[in-house]
Design goal:
heterodimer; A: alpha/beta; Rossmann fold; 2 domains; 6-stranded mixed beta sheet; 12 helices; B: alpha+beta; Alpha-Beta Plaits; two-stranded antiparallel ribbon; two-stranded antiparallel sheet; 3 helices; 4 strands; 17% helix; elongated
């Protein structure tokens, strides 16, 4: 058995510690609240000589992602980290990184997009990158941040995938909250992630290649089709990575986590740290004899439609919690769940709740209120409701 | 034009895996005006060769050998810089029937 140790650390530290053990060749980053501590901790590892990573302190996030794209195309394992408007400023190059099929891993500390300016958690930043071609993983706590950062490297670099990965953690709630995290020895992580096998590295001067040429109506569509296929391949590849990780750590991951779902009639679906609060309420309601459960979504892109159908078909009601709005349309997670159930043999009642925008607190009472709406069959599929909003 | 390949027959990410493929790109089809070269006026100063943005001026041992219409986009810079007016820009429409 591997000798692990536990430390009381924040989600930001967990991400930085994983990065230290992965020891990428290049990290280019720019500070932004609440992501700043990730890069601060990592910069200290670099300054102390703990890692041999080339650290590039750039002048903006657009430059950070550009430097990472350049490094990854050159054949380096490259990373950055960001939040909110930093991610928005990167957007142009975020899309290019996925289109060039560069296996970059980026922790994203979720924060509300301006404006008005706000530094606290919601998912508007990462949802704005939903269709950028990145794999998007959401963590419930710091342990998941650490574990999924490590697995993300393997997933991104897999020859059938070759796509960048965002590992999302809720701003402040996870990034600045201290929790015990079980950490693996350096050599175990190094051996798990292995060496990067670069595909078409620019620095292989015996095999010169061109990145980013003009790609018009004759081939652009074919290149997009390749990205669609790579996303499908995630469903084949990710389970083998999580299985290997489980054998190493005893911690099991998947596309979704069912919690007390066996006989559940009323199910909540959510992303990120709120799942911890929902589990607490599910336990309370179970003690009161109510048949409730939770389906936590670990992977949002590619969206695990098959798992969602398998777990939600035939339930009495499903409540979806979104920490971001889609102005003029249904909220992103709700839309995905609703669409997944279109052809379900036995459709549950569906309800959509938007909550927690700009860091508005979500507490057990609000979660219970949403469950009660479901249990009273008071859900309307085409009606969006709000938790914790004054109205 | 070469036969177009399917999505699963090409390298991922739009990467081009062999060098110098721009040579295969026939930019001559973009041309609206065609430079017509008059050898009798030419003094081989090679101003056209220096200025041509597409390396479409053919030369051998510092002697002007004509224009490569596979690459020439018809920008007209060569005709403009020629000190002897040895290159004249003529509409492509004049040549359509002649080539048939």
């Amino acid at each position: 058995m591997i000798k692990t140790h536990k430390e009381a650390i924040t989600g930001a530290q967990a991400a930085a510690y994983a990065m230290k053990q992965i020891e990428p060749d290049v990290v280019a980053a720019y500070p932004i609240t609440p992501q700043t501590p990730i890069v601060e901790y990592f910069a200290k590892y670099v300054a102390d000589g703990v890692v041999r990573t080339e650290m590039i302190p750039v002048e903006s996030e657009h430059s950070a992602m550009s430097a990472v794209v350049g490094a990854a195309a050159a054949g380096a394992r490259a990373m950055t980290a960001t939040s909110a408007n930093g991610l928005a400023l990167m957007h142009e190059i975020v899309y290019i990184a996925a289109s060039m099929r560069l296996p970059v891993v980026m922790p994203v500390v979720n924060r509300a997009l301006s404006g008005p300016i706000n530094i606290h958690c919601d998912h508007s930043d990462t949802m704005a990158e939903r269709d950028s071609g990145w794999i998007q993983i959401f963590c419930e706590d710091s342990q998941e941040v650490y574990d999924l950062m490590i697995m993300a490297v393997r997933l991104a670099e897999h020859e059938q995938v070759r796509l960048p990965v965002m590992v999302n953690q809720d701003g402040f709630i996870i990034s600045h909250g201290v929790e015990p995290v079980e950490l693996l020895p350096d050599e175990v992580v190094k051996s798990f992630v292995g060496e990067l096998k670069p595909l078409y590295p620019l620095l292989d001067i015996d095999h010169p290649v061109t990145y980013g040429p003009l790609d018009l109506y004759d081939y652009y569509f074919e290149h997009k089709r390749q990205q669609i296929e790579a996303m499908k391949n995630v469903f084949k590849v990710f389970p083998s990575i999580t299985e290997e990780f489980y054998k190493l750590t005893g911690r099991r991951y998947n596309f979704v986590e069912p919690y007390r779902m066996d006989d559940a009639q009323y199910v909540m679906v959510a992303l990120g740290s709120t799942n911890g609060t929902i589990k607490y309420v599910v336990d309370q309601l179970r003690e009161e004899g109510r048949k409730v459960g939770l389906l936590k979504i670990w992977m949002f892109r590619p969206f695990p439609k098959a798992e969602v159908q398998r777990y939600l078909t035939g339930r009495k009601a499903v409540v979806v919690l979104d920490r971001s709005a889609s102005f003029g349309a249904e909220a992103p997670l709700y839309e995905a769940i609703k669409s997944s159930l279109y052809e379900a043999a036995a459709k549950p009642l569906l309800g959509s709740f938007v909550y927690g925008l700009g860091g508005r607190d979500i507490n057990p009472e609000l979660v219970r209120f949403a469950f009660e709406k479901a249990m009273k069959h008071e859900l309307v599929a085409d009606q969006e409701l709000y938790l914790g909003l004054r109205e | 034009m070469a036969e177009l390949k399917k999505w699963n027959e090409i390298p991922i990410g739009g990467v081009i895996t062999e060098p110098g493929t721009a040579r295969k790109y026939q930019t001559g089809t973009w041309r609206v005006k065609r430079p017509v070269y008059d050898r009798s006026k030419c003094i081989d100063c090679m101003m056209c060769w220096f200025y041509c943005p597409d390396q479409a001026i053919m030369e051998e041992n510092s002697v002007m050998k004509g224009i490569n219409y596979f690459y020439c986009k018809g920008c007209g810079i060569c005709a403009n810089v020629c000190p002897k007016s040895a290159i004249e820009m003529r509409p492509e429409t004049e040549f359509i029937h002649k080539e048939e």
